[in-house]
Structure prediction request, 801 residues.
Amino acid sequence: MKRDFAVLGALVSLLAFAAIAAPTFFSAANLRDILLANLAVLIVAMGMTLVIVLGQIDISIGAQFGVCSVLAGMLAKAGCPAWLLVILLLGAGAALGSLNGLLVAHLRLPSIVVTLAAMAVLRDSLRWATGGKWVQDLPQSFQWFGLSQRGGEWMLSLVTGAILAGCVYGARYLMAGRMIFATGSDAESARLAGIPTVRVVFWVFAFMGALTALAALLNAVRFPEVPGNAGAGLELKAIAAVVVGGTSITGGRGSLGGSVLGVALLAVIGPMLTFLGVNAYWEQAIQGAIILVAATTTMAARKRT
Amino acid sequence: MLTLRSISKNYAGVRALQGIDFNLVAGEVHALAGENGAGKSTLVKILTGAVAPDSGTMHLNDKLVEQNTPHRARALGIAAIYQQPALFPELTVAENIALFDEAPEAWRRIDWAGRRTRARQLLAEIEADLSPDEIVASLSLARQQLVEIAKALGAGARVLILDEPTAALTEREAQNLFRIVGAMKAKGVGVIYISHRLPELFALADRITVLRDGQHVVTRAMQGLDEAELVRLMVGRALTAVYPARSAKRGDVVLESADAGCRATGVHNVSFQLRAGEILGISGLVGSKRTELAQMLFGLNPSDAGEIRVRGAGVKIRNPAQAIALGVGLVPEDRRRHGVVLPMSIAANTTLASLRGVSRRGFLQFGRERAVAEKWRERFSTKADSVLAPVETLSGGNQQKVSLARWLATNPSILILDEPTQGIDVGAKAEIHRLIADLAAGGLAILLISSDLPEILGMSDRVAVMRQGTIAVILDRVDATQQNILEIALGKDAAA
Prediction:
């Protein structure tokens, strides 16, 4: 909780600095652009937080995101109705996540290896299936789900907001959330308390996959075409945000609210540099520095207790 | 050669060693005897520099050893070999010996041929039939111990400490080890030998030092000592702590085990009955598989032989969730790792094994959770600012109360306590004893596993003594004494 305030403080001071140095940063259009560009990261960061709280990692979500994006585009072109498209896509995402979950939870393979393999396989399959081409000429009814652009933007933001609220609430108020944190803290200890730890790990990976599919869908409707390499680097953005948000990379401790703040903190850096007239090449270096500072303070907080 | 003078050591207020004098002569085998917790391990740790004594001095060859560290002790020629070898499992025999032997220097070229020659020579010295190129992980425990001894020899060990070296060896392997101990002795090495197997002490040792409750009892020649006298020396004391009075009411048999066993952990042919309101103490030496018995009854390593009956009905307990559903609870041994989830609040820890009870359709009800946690906090007078405080901020005794509360919140009819007072200070210990007695008086059937003999005798209605994976004998409270429990645990049968 205290950690969340620290991230919030950093975010607020950054924004305050921007307000003085480059007031135009706070134009409605700019803020809207930043939000829309980061909806996908926000959604997958929720799942990633739970995965990392379990002491696991999933680096295949960028590739999963690519597969789901292309799948969404192809289904839309084939004239699939929106409701069916949502169901099919969520199912596909959950299935991809379940595969990871099966290997990690039931066969006890290290998640870094499993998801690294999944990443390679999914990316290559995608390249093979699309021939590297973008999915173009998506039907009008697919873009913004057939709404006006303004209406679509509102809908996307509201859906994302609902997902974030649901995840933050669920982690705190659901038995499942308690089980995830207990398993991540010490799996043997959780097992002794009668918690089915294998199933917990499996379902978190499946949930991660479903969230990734949803993020892919919400992202795809913003554009008239789907690039073949959609989601490249998404996993790293999500992991970075989770770490900045104060979740311990070794598991057991973490905060979904912190991850939301983490996404926000990393997301505003780039645009802010542009508004300050600084070369945008510095963006990644600054993000890297923020990650290191966050990791250091998380460790320091751990030591004090 | 080696002399310790008035060594004392406290761990968080618990006296582990108190004014110990000890001396070791070159070329002798000196046995170190005492019950679990008498202070043998602490003494070994001080010799090897793993812990620093609070007071007292250590001299080696009349030279004062100051600021002993593991590195220092090694340089002085003090080597210890434990039941579990401390080797690098993925390296070869030769590399393991060399790493201990050669000075660490990052840029020196490694003399592979020299390492192998040296290893071969050391192994030949102890007549060990081993190739220097074998990977340590592929060797049996007994052969790994030989590597340890060669390693110690290579480092020019003058003091060799063997801590329960035969616990995991077969009879023949043990005989081979004794031969090597004899050879080391002939080379003028001073050997400190620790074993629960008394006949070994009589066969090997020249002198013996007995410790009890961290105090020095006697150092004498082995000659003229017999087993009964030795056991009396190890035990010989009155109960010091005051244990709570126990209610005499007993109910029906709630838990029954008939020849149950688990092949994976080596627990076998376990038979006992446990009644409501009864406390059955489980005693035994380290390695007699008491914890494994608890794990079997709780479904962690399910039973695959015989039968287990709960309230008269035969049951198969395959996982902890089933055990909990049957009303069985387990307060595990390693409290900090397994008994509580440290970063979670007292409230969350209290309800972790009974989440369903404080939820509706999967949603936790924090009001009910807090009420449950508050109830147990009050009942146990757990010292904490609030039930929302993380458990990692509590003392050991209070953490143990939270661990107990977690299981009582599941409303069990059978509770297994594995070392419930280990590492807890005296005051909290008495409090936990009182709680256990209260729970039994309330009709709970309790299995109490403990290495603390006075605790077993003070709390139990009957005492089951375990030996080599099974219950050797069950004694009634009136017949049980520290002396006969220890004798049975060490291998004498009840008839004696």
Chain B touches chain A through 31 residues (CB under 8 Å). Chain B has two domains: 2-235, 253-490.
